[in-house]
């Protein structure tokens, strides 16, 4: 679904000194090209119009001669190939049957969407896997694949505003490496993360379309139904709440149906199959909690997760009501070389090696809070474009920092260090709100650099106003997507003064502005050759999460 207001070092990897993983990942607004009726009419060949009649059907053919393909992009500057501009996805129904013998998946994804222009054809993002059939509104339809697109050409054009239902059946092998999609910096070969007993899902930011065909951009959220069929004794969980569970006719399989009724970006999908224990945990602040942990490690994992309810209540105090129906932590064995944690909606993902090691308990709790904070910042309010990644990572880092430092003493020295590194981070990666490339979007510049911008804003407007901005952000944009311009406008509205002059250089300049209240703070000089490693070393303890 599209928001009605439309147009208008890797800090996060889990490697690093506290986690002995394998060498880790190192550490514009979108405009949908909506074809207006006038433009469509101009594009249509001139025909002698039949006399106008009352029947609406009589004009149909004439209008639809202006039907055009939906643009094969939503115009994201970091990922220009993602998405399609010709429709709005409303709901995805994902049916998956996991076959333990072959460790493969038979899947059917049914997308319900509405055409936003007169459409002669449209595309979904889809990469890898083997398609067995494609049906449009129940009947066969012509399709073709190129690059990471599945292109659908209906027999007759689809009128703007018409709902459509596209069902794609396919065969998937989570262990395959035959995908084109590359997750920056690069991280994984696809969004499928195979484990011995099944798989988990990690598609952020641009590769969820290796798991299911979709309009794979956070500006087109949808609701979801998951129907997961697995051998009896195997556990299957997905985003949202469990609706029903039933045995297959021969009693060898179990199907679990999950629904996520809150709008969700495709990149935040979580589907997990394997030997897991689902632990219901007493909730807090009215939030239902369930954790999904590898059964073999449950006794080691669960004690590390016991601050969860307290952390949820702490976030609710700061950001406002929890935006979804359930929360939980997914902690699988066998994915330690993933190297990062991930804020999949309602069920954040953490490699078990990181949780179990617990050598630095504060650091582990920081990461748990980080992914929890993303449920508000990144999930409920999704980035309008991937250049807005600082809105996700800066906020998640800000709350992580504040959780770890209730009296604010470390925060000051941490912000001082980030300030010192800031010109170097910007030199290496670009302005905080305009990363130079997708490869640098998960660098420290988005995490500590983004948190530093929030600290500067708090210094400028004061604690009370800053707290109101944070809650207003959720109140205004929950369930939608929002960008940096929205953040500047909302901050200004809440503060009652125009903050564009203050925030624009903090967000869009390569040189770091003066920090309000700290006239003595200075930045280290940019050393071009050394810049990336220096940026990553700004917080050695947290580098390369
Ligand atoms: N968004 C994740 C976090 O901060 C990190 C992350 C997701 C990531 N995908 C990535 C980091 C790919 C590096 C590469 O919690
Ligand atoms: Zn993050």
What does this 3D model show about the protein?
- The chain has 13 helices and 22 strands.
- It is of the alpha+beta class.
- The chain has an 8-stranded mixed β-sheet, with no helix packed on it.
- The C terminus is likely disordered.
- Bound molecules: tryptophan and zinc ion.
Features:
binds zinc ion; alpha+beta; 545 residues; binds tryptophan; 8-stranded mixed beta sheet
Task: Provide the list of bound ligands, each named once.
Answer: tryptophan, zinc ion
| Count of β-strands | 22
- Order of strands across the main sheet: 5-4-8-2-1-11-14-13
Largest sheet: 8 strands, mixed
List unreliable stretches of 5+ residues: 4-12, 15-60, 533-545
What is the overall silhouette?
globular
Q: List the total number of helices.
A: 13
Category from helices, strands and their pairing = alpha+beta
Kindly provide the radius of gyration, computed on alpha-carbon positions and rounded to a whole number of angstroms: 24 Å
Residue share in β-strands: 15-25%
Termini distance? 33 Å
Could you estimate the helical fraction of the residues in percent? 25-40%
Mean pLDDT level:
88
Condensed summary:
The protein is an alpha+beta fold and 545 residues long. It has helices spanning 37-43, 57-64, 298-301, 308-319, 352-357, 361-376, 389-404, 409-429, 444-461, 463-477, 484-495, 500-508, 531-536, and strands spanning 87-99, 104-115, 122-125, 130-136, 139-140, 142-146, 149-153, 163-172, 192-195, 198-201, 222-231, 235-238, 241-247, 253-264, 271-274, 276-284, 287-294, 326-327, 329-331, 348-349, 381-383, 480-482.
């Amino acid at each position: 679904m599209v928001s009605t207001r439309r147009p208008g070092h890797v800090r996060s990897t889990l490697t690093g000194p506290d986690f002995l993983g394998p060498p880790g990942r190192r550490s514009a607004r979108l405009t949908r090209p909506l074809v207006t009726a006038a433009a469509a009419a101009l594009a249509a060949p001139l025909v002698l119009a039949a006399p106008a009649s009352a029947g609406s059907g009589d004009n149909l053919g004439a209008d639809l001669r202006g039907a055009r393909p939906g643009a094969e992009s939503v115009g994201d500057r970091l990922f220009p190939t993602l998405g399609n501009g010709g429709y709005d996805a409303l709901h995805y129904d994902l049916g998956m049957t996991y076959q333990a013998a072959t460790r493969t998946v038979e899947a059917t994804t049914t997308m319900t969407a509405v055409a936003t222009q007169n459409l002669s054809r449209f595309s979904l993002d889809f990469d890898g896997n083997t398609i067995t059939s494609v049906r449009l509104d129940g009947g066969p339809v012509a399709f073709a694949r190129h690059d990471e697109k599945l292109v659908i050409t209906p027999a007759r054009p689809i009128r703007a505003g018409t709902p459509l239902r596209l069902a794609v059946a396919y065969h998937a092998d989570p262990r395959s490496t035959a995908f084109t999609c590359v997750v920056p910096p690069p991280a994984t070969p696809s969004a499928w993360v195979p484990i011995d007993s099944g798989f988990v899902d990690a598609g952020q930011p641009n590769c969820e379309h290796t798991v299911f065909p979709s309009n794979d951009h956070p500006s087109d959220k949808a609701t979801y139904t998951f129907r997961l069929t697995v051998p009896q004794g195997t556990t299957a969980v997905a985003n949202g709440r469990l609706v029903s569970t039933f045995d297959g006719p021969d009693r060898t399989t179990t199907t679990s149906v999950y629904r996520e009724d809150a709008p969700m970006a495709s990149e935040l999908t979580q589907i997990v199959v394997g030997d897991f224990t689902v632990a219901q945990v007493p909730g807090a602040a009215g939030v239902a909690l369930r954790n999904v942990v590898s059964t073999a490690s449950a006794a080691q994992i669960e004690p590390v997760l016991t601050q969860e309810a307290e952390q949820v209540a702490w976030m609710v105090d700061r950001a406002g009501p929890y935006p979804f129906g359930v929360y939980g932590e997914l902690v699988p064995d066998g994915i330690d070389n993933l190297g990062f944690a991930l804020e999949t909606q309602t069920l954040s993902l953490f490699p078990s090696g990181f949780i179990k090691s617990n050598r630095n308990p504060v650091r582990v709790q920081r990461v748990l809070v980080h992914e929890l904070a993303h449920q508000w910042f990144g999930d409920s309010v999704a980035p309008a474009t991937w250049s807005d990644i600082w809105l996700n990572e800066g906020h998640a880092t800000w709350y992580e920092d504040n959780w770890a430092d209730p009296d604010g003493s470390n925060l000051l020295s941490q912000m001082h260090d980030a300030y010192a590194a800031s010109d170097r981070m910007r030199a290496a990666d670009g302005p905080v709100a305009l990363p130079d490339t997708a490869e640098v979007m998960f660098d420290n510049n988005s995490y500590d650099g983004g948190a530093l911008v929030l600290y500067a804003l708090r210094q400028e407007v004061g604690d009370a106003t800053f707290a109101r901005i944070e809650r207003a952000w959720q109140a205004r944009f929950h369930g939608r997507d929002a960008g940096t311009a929205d953040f500047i406008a909302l901050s200004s509205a809440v503060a009652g003064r125009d903050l564009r002059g203050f925030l624009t250089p903090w967000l869009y300049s390569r040189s770091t502005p003066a920090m309000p209240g700290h006239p003595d703070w200075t930045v280290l000089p940019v050393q071009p050759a050394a810049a990336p490693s220096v940026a990553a070393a700004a917080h050695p303890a947290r580098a390369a999460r």
